[in-house]
Amino acid sequence: MNTAKILISDDDQTLCYLLKEELVSEGYQVDIVFDGKYAIENLKKKNYDVLLLDLEMTEVHGEEVLVYANEHNPSTKVIILTAKTDIRTAIDCIKRGAYDFIPKPYEFGQLLVVIERALEHKNLQIKNAILANKLSKNVPHSIVGESRTIREVIGLAERAAKSDSNILLEGETGTGKELFAEFIHKNSNRDSKPLVAINCASLPDQLMESELFGYEKGAFTDAKTSKQGLVEIANGGTLFLDEIGELSLTLQPKLLRFLEKGEFRRVGGVTNLTSNVRVIGATNKNLMEEAENKTFRRDLLFRLNVITLTIPPLRERGKDVILLSNYFLQKNSPVKSVKTLSADAEVTMTNYSWPGNVRELAHTIERALIFSDSSEIKVKDLNLPQSSMASHNGVYDADGEVYSLDLIELSHIKKVLDEFNWNREVTAKALGIAQKTLYSKIKKYNLK
Ligand SMILES: Nc1ncnc2c1ncn2[C@@H]1O[C@H](COP(=O)(O)OP(=O)(O)OP(=O)(O)O)[C@@H](O)[C@H]1O
Ligand SMILES: [Mg+2]
Predict the structure, then answer these.
(1) Quick check: do 5-133 and 148-310 share a fold?
(2) What is the pTM of this model?
(3) For residue range 112-123, what is the model confidence (pLDDT) as tens digits?
(4) Whose CA is nearest to atom 26 of ligand 1?
(5) Ligand 1: nearest atom to the Cα of 320
(6) 401, 71, 67, 324: CA torsion to nearest 10
(7) Domain made up of 5-133: CATH architecture
């Protein structure tokens, strides 16, 4: 089945309706808009696989839409629909990132081939990215995300990577702190040297110390030979201290000394050794508060948080939920039959608050793939707890856009319908609207 999403933007309304009908009968999900202005609005709200874009439109020109799509929806393939007389501009558009163009008038069959080719191209790109990750464990996974919130942090991380300062990564569990640490190392001048990671909550105090700083022969009963610590192994590279808030108050001054002077002593050693590493710490605690409570040294915090990157929770990343879902669907399905999310499943996932963030989302998709018995993932396959459904309380979404009334209406109608088991009479009454109005809204929002 073809569940790819297509947006048609053309001021020729008849053409839009005809084309939509033809594409829908091929199984595509199709939205239409009659001006570039609305194309951009839709691109903000939804991830389209393909955009069929006319150039001459009344208010906002197709070229402007292309620029927007390139910047904000890089995974959407843009196909330019253009009059024969305007081929030059179409070619310019290809140079500027459009996938292809089709001169009008065209045959539907011809257009269909171009669309299918664009979709194949898109899938190949995703597959390649995944394969590249699988080949070498050292290449960090790409950070999937197009929302403004995550793009901002990625931009900061790129810049921070080039500096040699220590970095503190803050964020809830599962937001991708470790992924960011790998990303920063990979983009730094230290990437030819090792990235060494340790979880500060994983070992009791004494073991932690010898793991970090090493030990000398005879330092304790089992120390038959001397051993290098992780700070030595990471020399020239990066040391990632995960859950750094858990580091004990006895080890904190030792780490502080290392951060200040690059000096340390092995356990049982008498000489000062040196090593040159950049430290990236990660925490899901508020270390400022910990410092107030004297459970984390303030001087250590100030050494660490020269640069602080706050990784936003998934619920603040808008349409990235769907983007990431598709990424994990691709990653976990056999190459030939990648499953897709049903429209309701998309709504449910978008409304869910994801307390476990990207990790929870990855597990949800993995589980849904096991339990789903068709080519589409349904709401029941997701098995998400009802109590954590977020409501649109804020005014702005992740892209800093005000929630549109349509979105609020859609999500509210959906919730009330679910509440009353899709009894339209009761739902309409509860909402204070006529049943006919409810029907037209169900149709408008394609609720199922
Ligand atoms: N933006 C993203 N794109 C692709 N994969 C992601 C993204 N963010 C997180 N992941 C994946 O989600 C999982 C959890 O991420 P990660 O381990 O980096 O989170 P964390 O913040 O370190 O969590 P914790 O605080 O629980 O240690 C990993 O498998 C990671 O690869
Ligand atoms: Mg982690």
Answers:
(1) yes
(2) 0.63
(3) 999 999 999 887
(4) 173
(5) 1
(6) -80
(7) 3-Layer(aba) Sandwich (3.40)
